[in-house]
């Protein structure tokens, strides 16, 4: 078995992790203006989707771009994956997907048809409308695909809801296999549409029943990289028990922690809600377990058996750069100031 600190160090330097860190060098977010409520922060980058309040609900927007090499070499799966990733993003925010649009460029009509077939098949499987897009076919183009999605949510599972002493859960479908020569873990093949739809509907159910606070889908940054994106918005830390993460016996930790699964989520919840959450996932054949707890120290520490290591320290290094801890503190201070004195005391000194 690989030594824990060596494992964590290798995971920090994967291409997928480096691509996430590159975001911080090219995107800066100014939250000093126009942030007068938590609702206004929901539209900022950091969550899996942007959320815009409308008539007591939230309109959700997300977009996924596929790597040109992926579009070139696996056109059908690239089309499917673009839709699947978007639907997971909507679900992770506590929403239900409504419609999909796409834009693609390709040199081959035959491969373009496979690309579109993958998009259409995924939309059919998950019960989402494909409502249009933009198509470009020509020898001068590099194969490229972008898919955008719209959704709606009654309540949100935003990363802005992460607070200290929340339990961290992982939900993974272990009934899958790796797409050849990739980290993509496919658990949708030969699965009836109704099951795919009922599984993804668990996330908005958790939001609407107030069982979970926050969620993040497990993306190409893998399990620990996606965990950083769950925590960074609030500058939170976490203590993670690696051995609690569900894993097939025949897959090593280095490969498994890099997975980009077709169904995989990280969530936070109160300790007294975890049993109910785990049971909901288990009923749908999804493995779910408590793998750790959040804290306020900004350090992500990992334990495996009796070994301990530090995966990340937000006090010393940003990840994507999308941190709103100061804005959240400002909003909290404003909220306390406008409340009656009796309510201020109850907020500051809970019993």
TrEMBL record:
<feature type="domain" description="PurM-like N-terminal">
    <location>
        <begin position="46"/>
        <end position="152"/>
    </location>
</feature>
<dbReference type="InterPro" id="IPR010918">
    <property type="entry name" value="PurM-like_C_dom"/>
</dbReference>
<feature type="domain" description="PurM-like C-terminal">
    <location>
        <begin position="197"/>
        <end position="302"/>
    </location>
</feature>
<protein>
    <submittedName>
        <fullName>AIR synthase-related protein, sll0787 family</fullName>
    </submittedName>
</protein>
<dbReference type="Pfam" id="PF02769">
    <property type="entry name" value="AIRS_C"/>
</dbReference>
<dbReference type="Pfam" id="PF00586">
    <property type="entry name" value="AIRS"/>
</dbReference>
<dbReference type="InterPro" id="IPR036676">
    <property type="entry name" value="PurM-like_C_sf"/>
</dbReference>
<dbReference type="GO" id="GO:0009030">
    <property type="term" value="F:thiamine-phosphate kinase activity"/>
</dbReference>
<dbReference type="InterPro" id="IPR011413">
    <property type="entry name" value="UCP036540_AIR"/>
</dbReference>
<keyword id="KW-0784">Thiamine biosynthesis</keyword>
<dbReference type="GO" id="GO:0009228">
    <property type="term" value="P:thiamine biosynthetic process"/>
</dbReference>
<dbReference type="InterPro" id="IPR024030">
    <property type="entry name" value="AIR_synthase-rel_sll0787"/>
</dbReference>
<dbReference type="InterPro" id="IPR006283">
    <property type="entry name" value="ThiL-like"/>
</dbReference>
<dbReference type="InterPro" id="IPR036921">
    <property type="entry name" value="PurM-like_N_sf"/>
</dbReference>
<dbReference type="InterPro" id="IPR016188">
    <property type="entry name" value="PurM-like_N"/>
</dbReference>
């Amino acid at each position: 078995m690989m030594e824990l600190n060596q494992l964590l160090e290798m995971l920090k330097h994967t291409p997928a992790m480096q691509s996430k860190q590159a975001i911080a060098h090219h995107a800066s977010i100014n939250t000093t203006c126009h942030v007068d409520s938590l609702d206004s922060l929901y539209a900022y980058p950091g969550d899996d989707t942007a959320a815009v309040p409308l008539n007591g609900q939230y309109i959700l927007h997300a977009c996924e771009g596929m790597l040109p090499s992926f579009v070139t070499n696996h056109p059908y799966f690239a089309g499917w994956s673009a839709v699947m990733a978007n639907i997971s993003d909507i679900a992770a925010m506590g929403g239900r997907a409504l419609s999909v649009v796409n834009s693609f460029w390709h040199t081959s009509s035959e491969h373009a048809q496979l690309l579109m077939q993958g998009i259409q098949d995924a939309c059919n499987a998950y019960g989402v409308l494909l409502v249009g897009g933009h198509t470009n076919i020509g020898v001068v183009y590099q194969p490229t695909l972008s898919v955008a999605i719209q959704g709606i949510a009654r309540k949100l599972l935003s990363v802005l809801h992460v607070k200290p002493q929340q339990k961290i859960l992982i939900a993974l479908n272990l009934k899958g296999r790796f797409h050849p020569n990739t980290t993509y873990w496919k658990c949708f093949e030969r699965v009836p549409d109704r099951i795919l739809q009922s599984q993804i509907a668990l996330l908005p159910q958790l939001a609407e029943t107030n069982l979970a606070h926050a969620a993040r889908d497990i993306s190409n940054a893998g399990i620990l990289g996606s965990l950083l994106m769950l925590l960074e918005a609030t500058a939170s830390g976490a203590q993670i028990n690696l051995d609690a993460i569900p894993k097939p016996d025949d897959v090593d930790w280095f490969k498994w922690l890099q997975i980009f699964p077709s169904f995989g989520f990280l969530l936070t919840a109160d300790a007294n809600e975890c049993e109910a959450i785990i049971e909901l996932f288990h009923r749908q054949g999804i493995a779910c377990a408590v793998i750790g707890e959040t804290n306020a120290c900004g350090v992500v520490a990992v334990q495996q058996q009796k070994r301990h290591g530090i995966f990340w320290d937000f006090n010393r290094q940003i990840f994507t750069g999308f941190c709103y801890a100061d804005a959240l503190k400002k909003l909290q201070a404003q909220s306390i100031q406008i409340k009656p004195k009796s309510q201020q005391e109850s907020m500051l000194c809970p019993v």
